[in-house]
Write a structure and sequence with these properties.
Helix content is 36%, strand content 26%. The protein has 727 residues and is an alpha+beta fold.
């Protein structure tokens, strides 16, 4: 059989011709010399046919080059896949058919290196260099030599491995990325964090991580099903990417847990802003399979090298911070501090103690007045649960209510509150109402109407004096079941209030059918409403207009200053609840006021001011080479009241050491014998968990260096209260 014309090498002469013939016609002859007799050529021709059939089957292809690496033969079908013809590629450098190895990220010897060294190679993975041809080939080649041992070129073969390559890439992606959201998975982000921390440790750079957990996600899964939960997780991932920006630094660890790496970020003000943006962004309403729902998020933050040098330490400490954020009411962020280890132990101990708190008589109710905003007359009270621990004293509901929810104690506590509130209210003269919070867990229990009826009957309380406060989260479940529950409760004659309106599953649709008597405006809308530029006032006005159109009352919660009270009055809010009228009071004190009409004169600061935290915290005050042990009595973002040093002149500058690298420069603005009012040079920032912290910290690297250079401190320049007491 004649050799096809496409194998002709034109003017390349005998070397090219021998290269062509040699590939097919010279099988078995290392020297390239033809075998003379016709009978001997029969196996050669048969081999040629077999090779042609192999080429046409598409299972593989052949190639050959001259000594300079230029193509002398290539299977025509493969050339066409590359957008050429076999003849069109002859004379082309074989290496030009493939992309450079560096662009593929492969760790292997390159094709030019192998050809230059005249080395043999097998199954070398190479990617097509031709535009529009995203194929991978496994290429093998053998160097050829003449009788004198001179190199004459290469002969080789190739196979299409595109499918295998893509399959391997898919498998690799599955090993590194979450199949549901497309984010990096736990293994991937763990390796990335290890590498980042190792590099940053050498360069003394910082790196923050955030762990976040979705609040109320389980309720979505349980009520709408796992497909809806999966769809929700995809939307969460998309929102996280929009907020953070860097896809490779956001991961899904599994379930509803996510992790974010933030290299070179240590400013806790900036980190707090990012965490707040995440919480706000993930708390906006979602549309999932035709259902509207809202979840929340809690975030724990840890920063290397301050909170750990290894990835294990950093993740563990961020997890502790997340645990603290969820434990203090959810929808918060928290920074790690060494105190959280003890706090976690305390929380576990509190859960055990909470199980016995009712039987030990440690749980009681207090009542906060709800006041008519125009007349200042008390029209009702809200029952608020309080826990006085036998050893630890008063435990905040913000702390123990989440514990009760996680420990499945909320139904037992809720039933006790309902019975106790009805029994107490029955002893009040007049017709003052009592409001009781109903958790989503209680609302979902079909026994709730029976328990309410029993509590009313046992106390002898008129049903219209009981007001059940229900949050919007109850509307996430089955609409028919929700409507039946509302109907059963209204049949009892009790009043219903929509609590924390605007912070949960906000949808005006349910207000068309839900039989509420009152809308409670959450304190998050009241807060900052009087600050210029705030839109909260407009939101309050819209809620009031909506309530009036639906013939409902309104109550604004959390009113603490007179300017806030003036604003909500101006906006026609019908009722007010907050410290501007009264703190929650126990039953005994309440009875003293209910003998006749109870009118409260509002009192409080004229204007909303920065939160000031009362506390007893030991810190260090550094002046020159002297360090004093002092106590902070109250703390705000701009200053503090400290005590422990006597007669410090106004204008004295201190460095206040809060511990764990938290240092802030402060100036004494007021001095009152053993107390000093100090102003911070740089404002404190929220720690996301109800407290304050410094914006930045002194790196452990710098502290270690300074410790090596610092000698013992000299005697104090000021007299401390300890010295004074000793004298």
């Amino acid at each position: 059989m004649d050799v096809p014309s496409r194998m002709d090498t034109g003017d390349r002469g005998s070397e090219g011709e021998e290269g062509q013939r040699g590939f097919f016609g010279l099988i078995g002859s290392r020297t390239g010399k033809p075998r003379g007799d016709a009978a001997a050529n029969l196996p050669t021709r048969e081999a040629l046919l077999l090779l042609r059939n192999y080429e046409e089957s598409g299972q593989g292809w052949f190639w050959s080059t001259d000594a300079k690496g230029r193509l002398t033969y290539i299977t025509d079908s493969v050339a066409r896949l590359m957008g050429r013809t076999g003849g069109g590629l002859l004379g082309t450098a074989f290496t030009d058919l493939f992309l450079p190895v560096d662009s593929q990220g492969e760790r292997q010897r390159t094709l030019p290196f192998l050809l230059t060294r005249q080395s043999k190679f097998d199954e070398l993975p190479l990617r097509s260099a031709f535009e529009g041809d995203d194929r991978w080939w496994a290429v093998s080649g053998r160097p050829q030599f003449d009788d004198a041992g001179r190199f004459t070129g290469y002969r080789g073969s190739g196979t299409d491995i595109t499918a295998q390559r893509r399959s391997a890439e898919d498998a690799s992606r599955l090993a590194l990325y979450d199949s549901l959201t497309g984010l990096a998975n736990r293994f991937n982000i763990s390796k990335k964090l290890d590498a980042t921390l190792a590099a940053f440790s050498q360069q003394q750079r910082s790196c923050a991580i955030m762990l976040l957990d979705l609040d109320r996600f389980k309720q979505v899964n349980d009520t709408l099903g796992h497909p809806a939960g999966d769809a929700l997780l995809k939307q969460v991932a998309e929102r996280l990417l929009r907020i953070v920006g860097d896809r490779e630094m956001v991961s899904r660890l599994g379930g509803d847990e996510f992790q974010i790496i933030l290299p070179d970020v240590e400013d806790r003000g900036k980190l707090g802003d990012i965490a707040s943006d995440i919480i706000a962004g993930l708390s906006q309403p979602y549309s999932v399979e035709g259902s509207r729902c809202i979840i929340g998020a809690s975030v724990g933050v840890a920063i290397a090298p301050f909170d750990g040098l290894s990835s294990d330490d950093l993740v563990r400490n961020a997890d502790l911070a997340l645990y603290a954020a969820k434990g203090n009411g959810r929808g918060r962020f928290a920074f790690y501090s060494s105190e959280l280890h003890q706090a976690a132990e305390d929380r576990r101990a509190l859960e055990e103690d909470l199980r016995d708190a009712l039987t030990r008589g440690e749980i009681e109710l207090c009542y906060q007045p709800v006041v008519n905003s125009r007349s200042d007359m008390v029209t009702g009270v809200e029952a608020l649960i309080r826990w006085t621990h036998r050893d630890r004293g008063v435990i905040s509901p913000i702390l123990f209510i989440p514990i009760a929810e996680e420990a499945n104690l909320i139904w037992e506590l809720g039933e006790w509150v309902l019975r106790k509130a009805c029994a107490d209210a029955a002893r009040w003269p007049g017709d003052m109402r009592v409001a009781v919070n109903v958790s989503p867990v209680q609302f979902a229990n079909e026994d709730l109407p029976r328990i309410v009826a029993q509590a009313l009957d046992a106390a002898g309380l008129a049903p219209d004096r009981l007001e059940l406060e229900i949050t919007e989260s109850v509307f996430l479940g089955d609409t028919a079941e929700t409507n039946r529950m509302f109907e059963a409760l209204k049949d009892l004659g009790v009043r219903l209030a929509l609590d924390d309106f605007g912070t949960g599953y906000s949808s005006l649709g349910y207000l068309q059918s839900a039989p509420f008597d009152k809308i409670k405006i959450d304190q998050s809308f009241v807060r900052d409403a009087t600050i210029p530029g705030s839109r909260n006032g407009a939101i309050i006005a819209a809620i009031v207009a909506l309530a009036e159109a639906l013939d409902m009352e309104t109550t604004a919660e959390g009113i603490e200053s007179l300017d806030q009270l003036e604003l909500v009055r101006k906006l026609n809010v019908s009722h007010v609840q907050g410290y501007v009228y009264s703190k929650p009071v126990p039953q005994a004190e309440l009875l003293e006021h209910t003998a006749g009409s109870w009118r409260i004169q509002p009192a409080g600061p004229a204007r909303q001011r920065n939160d000031r935290y009362s506390l007893f915290r030991k810190v260090g005050a550094i002046h020159g080479n002297h360090r004093y042990a002092v106590v902070i009595r109250n703390l705000s973002t701009t200053g503090a009241l400290i005590e422990g040093i006597l007669d410090v002149p106004v204008g004295t500058r201190f460095v206040i050491d809060f511990g764990e690298g938290q240092l802030v420069t402060a100036t004494v603005r007021r001095s009152m014998r053993h107390q000093q009012g100090i102003e911070f040079e740089q404002t404190m920032v929220s720690d996301g968990n109800g407290g304050l912290c410094t914006r930045s910290r002194v790196s452990p690297y710098l502290i270690a260096a300074a410790t090596q250079q610092t000698s013992d401190l000299a005697l104090p320049a000021f007299t401390t209260t300890n010295d004074w007491n000793a004298a």
